[in-house]
TrEMBL record:
This is Cell envelope integrity protein TolA. It comes from the Bacteria. Residues 201-218 have a biased composition (Low complexity). It comes from Marilutibacter penaei. Residues 59-112, 136-224 are annotated as: Disordered. Keywords: Membrane, Transmembrane, Transmembrane helix.
Length: 318
């Protein structure tokens, strides 16, 4: 059983009371055993009364351990009185009396006071507090683990996003390189085709010139340069009337066109040849203008009409 504060207070009060009672009994005993003065003949003997409690512990112990007094031997028979008066006998030295030990008070029995506190309730409360503290510790640990897990997941997601971004950037770079290679190859093929068409046109023009020279009336040299120039100008104006110049094509820029047509000016095909200062948009726009301009000028130009003709179109505003 645990000692409470009230038990400690009662024990201190009882101890102080016991010491006070012992002091009072010692004083009363000393006063009660005081030695009275003895009237004796002769020179008086002085004696001091000493309080036993005032003596040192070693003196008190020596007095307590003092041997028992030895009985005096029997006095010899008194002699016959002589006529002379005997001298006075000295009085025996008074023996100090032993100070009686005061009776010790009977110690008070320790009374066990009932504990008003329910120990089971205290134990249950302590267990509940311990369980609550343990629950708080576990909850704090769980939250910290959740924070660490979230941080790891965030870091993993960031790394995954970086890898995806790097992969996408690499894929874009490869796609751009592939597009550049494709454009280069397409441009190379166009150059080769343009060169091939130029050779074909040159061959066709050479054959046409040879045939015209053979069938031309005498005195005209086989061709009418003035009419051909007018034909070229008419074609230029017909195509220019249907063409909307892109901003990327500067005024005065030239582009060679190869047009295949049937008698009457119906366009069968049109191709952009080389050299051509137009970009891709300009080339597509001039091809569309040629198709919109059909039928091309024909009436009056039958003598200089060509199924396959090549013109150098010059960019101008309408």
């Amino acid at each position: 059983m645990r000692e409470t504060r009230s038990d400690t207070t009662i024990a201190v009060v009882l101890a102080v009371g016991l010491h006070v009672v012992l002091m009072v009994l010692l004083l009363v005993g000393a006063w009660w055993t005081r030695t009275p003065q003895v009237q004796a003949a002769g020179e008086p003997i002085a004696a001091d009364v000493v309080d036993a409690n005032a003596l040192t512990s070693s003196v008190q112990r020596a007095l307590a351990e003092r041997p028992e007094p030895v009985e005096a031997p029997p006095e010899p028979p008194e002699p016959v009185e002589q006529p002379t008066t005997p001298p006075p006998q000295p009085l025996p030295e008074p023996v100090p009396q032993d100070a009686p030990n005061p009776p010790q008070p009977t110690p008070q029995d320790f009374v066990i006071e009932p504990d008003d506190v329910n120990q089971d309730a205290v134990t249950d409360r302590e267990a509940a507090l311990a369980a609550e503290e343990n629950a708080r510790i576990q909850e704090a640990k769980r939250r910290q683990d959740q924070i660490d897990l979230t941080e790891r997941q965030r870091e993993q997601e960031a790394q995954r996003q970086r890898r995806l971004a790097e992969q996408q950037a690499e894929a874009d770079r490869q796609a751009k390189l592939a597009e550049i290679r494709r454009q280069r190859e397409a441009a190379q093929r166009e150059v080769e085709l343009a060169e091939q068409r130029a050779r074909q046109v040159a061959d066709a023009q050479a054959r046409t010139a040879s045939a015209g020279a053979a069938s031309a009336p005498p005195g005209q040299g086989g061709t009418d340069d003035g009419l051909l120039a007018k034909y070229q100008s008419a074609l230029q104006q017909a195509i220019l009337s249907k063409w909307t110049r892109p901003e990327t094509v500067p005024i005065g820029a030239r582009c060679r066109l190869t047009i295949r047509q049937s008698p009457g000016g119906n366009v069968m095909s049109v191709e952009v040849g080389s050299p051509c200062a137009y970009d891709e948009q300009g080339q597509r726009s001039i091809e569309a203008a040629v198709l919109k301009a059909q039928p091309l000028p024909y009436a009056g130009f039958e003598s200089v009409f060509q199924r396959t003709l090549t013109i150098n179109f010059e960019a101008r505003d309408r």
